[in-house]
């Protein structure tokens, strides 16, 4: 490496590229030469997944210098790669061959569309390797630096995008001749995605694998191809859901939901007509009639009675009120119901202040139907594109996708997933910390902690004990078995102790969202679909805001945006919560909120008022920025409870 860098440095003064040219000519001439140049020890076999045996710094230096060399050197490298790829293979690939693929994949020349034909052949050869070879590559990929890993992912995403929508179609062979390009690139991306998920924390966020170009193709055709052919010979991007953005997945789920809604509504209509009954428009909807005073019980009764209608469009009526549901009453129903069910006094969920989230109460009860109701609510929210103000930990969504489709065998357990101290930490950080301390304790665990394989829980003021394994009360926790103890403890808290509660919740959610499209989602993406995204962009909100009684150039409105854009994040979140009922943003971004500011022709001594059901802020015409800021902060900081007019 030192010699190579010195040769490159000398060129600056001499202008003679011969030595550097010879290096590239020799190194990229064949797979054995690549190994000879870049292996840390040419005589060692390096047959482990943990160490590729490649001098990564040298590879990076050679590639970084390559782009600054004359064109003839760059062409020499490409020619060498072509010859290597055209070599006739006999027998299985060796670890040296895998190393060569690993090195060539990092070549920055493949950013250029003129090299795509060569790049495609390289990708095909890597994609068609046997599973054992892929296993090695995945583990080598995870050792790359974040910068180089991200470059590999971006290069592959760009390759797919430009093959789908080429700037100059004549640059590439006709699509019929290279239909294998995109499947090969997707398969290699899948290897990188696997590598990324093996590292904690991941090298790059999962969202960096999204290919936004796919938002512009016929996603439903991709989905139906996948539905019909699964993961067989017929390619569909749905086989590689990690490249489909959450916005695109939402479109697939909504269209799938709409088709199910239309199908069920049509069937209702056909049934009525076949029985010679007069069709009624109400039969096309899931009509909820509830009393405000009996909100939970009425909702539960209605949803139980109308179980067959859950996949119809939701419409809510409050008994004794004349309001027509144009979306506002539905949202109000969700807001009020969620607030009531999650209230600590209700006893279904426990709020953990340390982690700002709710978790299922483990208290035993005779009827778990209300947990089913919460699951149905979440399903209806996804189905009807409503963002809920629910604070569940990520582990909840992992359990909700375990499995993503209701199993045909009713005895198969649902909502059970592998849980770790990381999952527990997101709910009960202090307890998770205590268990981690136990695992790393250097003294004598049995003598110092004096614990057994038992869990103690308070239920209605009585301390109850549960064995973590048969005879657990007589098995001491020792240095040797403490890992098993911690794993059983976490599994008890997050799986076993709440199994019936969570199973009811799981079946409720899937009774509405019974769609194969759920198989495309990560747990984090289900959370975003249900609760929205925590990423706020107040400039985007400003651009999409509608006005009633004000113009966007009015002084009060200019004061308002000056104040809001200057707010710290916590106040911006409070404003969003004050006006919409949630401090999170729907999947489609701020524009999907349909946020409106209306003129409130009242005294400027009054505070602003919000109609959360319509995402509407009623703002008096304050005369000064100072007055507006003061009143707005008071309003958004003291807005608990509904003032329904």
From TrEMBL:
Pathway(s): Protein modification; protein ubiquitination
InterPro entries given in the database record: E3A/B/C-like, HECT_dom, Hect_E3_ubiquitin_ligase
Top-level taxon in the UniProt lineage: Eukaryota
Enzyme nomenclature, EC number: 2.3.2.26
Membrane-traversing stretches: none
Keyword annotations from UniProtKB, A to Z: Phosphoprotein, Transferase, Ubl conjugation pathway
Organism ancestry: Eukaryota, Metazoa, Chordata, Craniata, Vertebrata
Protein name in the entry: Probable E3 ubiquitin-protein ligase HECTD2
Pfam families: HECT
GO molecular function annotations of the record: ubiquitin protein ligase activity
């Amino acid at each position: 490496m030192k010699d190579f860098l010195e040769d490159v440095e000398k060129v600056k003064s001499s202008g003679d590229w011969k030595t550097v040219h010879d290096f590239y000519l020799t190194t990229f001439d064949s797979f054995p030469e690549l190994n000879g140049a870049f292996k840390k020890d040419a005589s060692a076999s390096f047959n482990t997944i943990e160490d590729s045996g490649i001098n990564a710094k040298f590879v990076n230096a050679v590639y970084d210098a390559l782009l600054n060399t004359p064109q003839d050197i760059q062409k020499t490298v490409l020619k060498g790669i072509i010859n290597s790829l055209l070599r006739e293979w006999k027998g299985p690939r060796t670890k040296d061959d895998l190393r060569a693929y690993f090195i060539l994949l990092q070549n920055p020349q493949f950013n250029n569309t003129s090299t795509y034909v060569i790049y495609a052949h390289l990708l095909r050869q890597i994609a068609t390797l046997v599973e054992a070879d892929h296993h090695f590559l995945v583990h080598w990929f995870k050792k790359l630096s974040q910068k180089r890993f991200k470059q590999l992912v971006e290069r592959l995403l760009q390759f797919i995008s430009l093959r789908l929508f080429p700037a100059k179609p004549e640059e590439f062979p006709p699509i019929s001749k290279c239909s294998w390009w995109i499947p090969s690139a997707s398969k290699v991306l899948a290897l990188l995605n696997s590598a990324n998920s093996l590292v904690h924390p991941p090298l790059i966020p999962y969202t960096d694998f999204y290919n936004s170009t796919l938002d512009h193709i016929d996603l439903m055709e991709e989905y139906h191809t996948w539905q019909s052919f699964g993961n067989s010979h017929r390619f569909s991007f749905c086989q590689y859901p990690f490249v489909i953005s959450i916005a695109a997945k939402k479109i697939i789920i909504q269209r799938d939901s709409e088709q199910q809604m239309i199908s069920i509504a049509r069937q209702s209509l056909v049934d009525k007509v076949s029985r010679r009954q007069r069709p009624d428009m109400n039969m096309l909807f899931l009509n909820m009639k509830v009393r405000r005073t009996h909100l939970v019980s009425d909702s539960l009764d209605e949803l139980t009675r109308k179980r067959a209608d859950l996949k119809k469009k939701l419409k809510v009526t409050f008994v004794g009120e004349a309001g027509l549901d144009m979306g506002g009453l539905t949202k109000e129903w969700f807001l009020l119901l969620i607030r009531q069910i999650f209230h600590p006094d209700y006893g279904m969920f426990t709020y953990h202040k340390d982690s700002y989230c709710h978790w299922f109460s483990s208290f035993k009860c005779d009827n778990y139907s209300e947990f089913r109701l919460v699951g149905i609510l979440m399903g209806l929210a996804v189905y009807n594109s409503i963002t809920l103000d629910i604070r569940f930990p990520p582990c909840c969504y992992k359990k909700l996708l375990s499995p993503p489709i209701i199993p045909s065998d009713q005895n198969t357990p649902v909502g059970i997933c592998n849980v770790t101290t990381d999952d527990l930490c997101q709910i009960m950080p202090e307890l998770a910390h205590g268990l981690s301390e136990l695992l790393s304790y250097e003294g004598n665990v049995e003598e110092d902690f004096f614990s057994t394989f038992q869990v103690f829980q308070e239920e209605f003021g009585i301390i109850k004990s549960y064995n973590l394994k048969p005879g657990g009360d007589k098995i001491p926790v020792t240095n040797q078995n403490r890992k098993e103890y911690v794993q059983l403890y976490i599994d008890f808290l997050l799986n076993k102790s709440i199994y019936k509660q969570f199973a009811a919740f799981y079946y409720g959610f899937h009774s509405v969202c019974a769609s194969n499209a759920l198989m495309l989602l990560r747990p984090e993406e289900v959370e975003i679909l249900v609760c929205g995204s925590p990423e706020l962009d107040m400039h985007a909100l400003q651009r999409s805001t509608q006005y009633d009684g004000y113009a966007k150039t009015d002084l009060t409105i200019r004061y308002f945006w000056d104040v809001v854009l200057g707010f710290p994040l916590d106040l911006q979140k409070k404003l969003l919560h004050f006006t919409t009922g949630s401090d999170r943003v729907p999947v489609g971004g701020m524009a999907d909120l349909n946020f409106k500011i209306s003129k409130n022709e009242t005294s400027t001594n009054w505070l602003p008022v919000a109609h959360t059901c319509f995402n509407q802020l009623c703002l008096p015409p304050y005369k000064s920025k100072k007055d507006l800021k003061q009143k707005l902060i008071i309003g958004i900081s003291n807005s608990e409870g509904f003032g329904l007019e």
